[in-house]
What does this fold into?
Amino acid sequence: MDHSKHSRNTSTDKKDSGDTGGSVLNGHFDGMVTRAPGGTGRSSAAPAAEPGSRVAAAGVMESWRDERTRSVEDNEMSLPSLAAAYTTILRGLGEDPQRQGLLKTPWRAATAMQFFTKGYQEKIIDVLNDAIFDEDHDEMVIVKDIDMFSMCEHHLVPIFGRVHIGYLPNKRVLGLSKLARIVEIYSRRLQVQERLTKQIAVAITEALQPTGVGVVIEATHMCMVMRGVQKMNSKTVTSTMLGVFREDPKTRDEFLTLIRS
Amino acid sequence: MNAHCDTVEEFQCNNGFSDLIIDTKKSAVHRKHETSRKEDEDESRLPALEAAYTNILRHLGEDTHREGLLRTPLRAAKAIQFLTKGYHETIEDILNNAIFDEDHDEMVIVKDIDMFSLCEHHLVPFFGKVHIGYIPNKKVVGLSKLVIFFFFFFLVQERLTKQIAVGIHEALQPKGVAVVIEAAHMCMVMRGVQKMNSRTVTSAMLGVYLEDPKTREEFLTLSQRA
It folds into this structure.
C-alpha cells in the first residue's frame, strides 16, 4: 500500500478539500440559527446572516467548534408550544385528542421530536476534545455499520441506515466511538443525506487533519417507502471522499472493498 | 347497521368466538363513525396543519427560512394527511365490489403484506409485515385491498391486528381468520430504549383458527416459511 506516501498538500486543505467545498459548507451551516441570549458572543460565526459569502477557513474552524444552537433549557421552554402544535395536528387530521390513547401523545411526540433533533444541542468540540491521540499509525482505519437515524428535512419523516467511515491517520488518531458520536451529532437533525455525508467527512478532516477520509452512507428514506413512490426496498447510497481517498483509486478501492465484506 | 351487528353476534356466539372480540368489534365500528373526514376537508385543514408544523420547526431551533425548509410545513402536512387517510374512508367504499362468491373452503393465506403506519403514542412510524389466513365460507374478498385500509390511522399494533381480523370477519363471515403482524417500532429503535433489532409480534385468531390447533399450526407454518 503506497497511499501513505501520497501528496500531503491535499490533506492540509481544511476547507476546500479539493472540491467546491466552500459553498457546500455554507449550505451545511445554513440551518444554524444563532441564539443571542444563550450565545457565546461569537460575532464572526453567524453563518445564517451571510448565506452567500465564502466563509474564511478560520471562520469555518470556529463554526465547526461552536455549532450548538439549542440548550436543554431551550428544550424545556419549547415543550408546551410543541405539544400545542401536535394537538392542533391531531385535531386537524380528524382525531380526538381527548381519547385515552392520545391523551399524552402531544407531549410524547414533542419529546420524541426533540430527541430526533438533539444534534442541535451538541458540539463536536465537546465530543472530541479528549479523544485525539498521537499515534504513529499510517494505515487505514475503518469503522463500519454504524447505525444511523435521521429526519428528512423535507417531510419530517425518518431516514435510517448505516454509515461506514474510513480514514488514513496522519500522526493523529481518534477514539473509535467518537466517530460514531460524530455521526450521532450530525444525523440527529433535519437532514439531507448528501449534506450529512459531507458534514461527517469534514468534521473528521477538521479534527484530525488526516491524509484522507472516506464516508459512505446507505439509507432507507421513509418518505419514499411510506408515501410518494412507495418503493419498499430502495436504498440511497451517498459517499464523500476527501484527501487521498479522492486522489488515489487504490485507496478508495481498498476502503470500498473492506466495507463490503 | 344494528341488524348487521346482531347477526354477527349470533354467528360469533354460535361459533366459539369470545366476548372480548365482540367488544373490539364494537370499537372497530365506533371508529368508522367517529370524527370522520372528507377529502375536501383535507384541503381546508391544510393551512392549520402547515402553521402547526412551522411552529414545530421553529421550536426545534431550526431556521424556517432556509432553502431546505421553505416548503417543508406544506410537505409534512400533506405527508401526514396521506398517512392518516383512513379517517376519511369507509370500509363499505373499499369493499363495495370486491366480494365474490366462490365455492372454496380451503385455507387462503396472503403473507408478507408490507405495512407502514404511525404509532399513536409518539406519532413515529412503525412498519413490518402482515400475514393473513382465512378459510372462506362461500365468499372470498380482494384481501390486500381490505387490509390496507386499516393501516392509515394512528395505531397501536395490538388493536390493528384485531381490527384486521374483525374486519375480514365482518365482511365475509368466514369459518376462521388468522392475522399475524411482525413489526419494528421506530419509537423503540430511534429513541427510548434504542433496541435496533427487536420486533413486536401480535396475532389474532378467530373461529376455527382459535378452536383447532392443527389449523392454526398449518397457518403458522405456511406463513413463516420464506
Notes: The domain at 97-223 of chain B is CATH 3.30.1130.10 (GTP Cyclohydrolase I, domain 2).
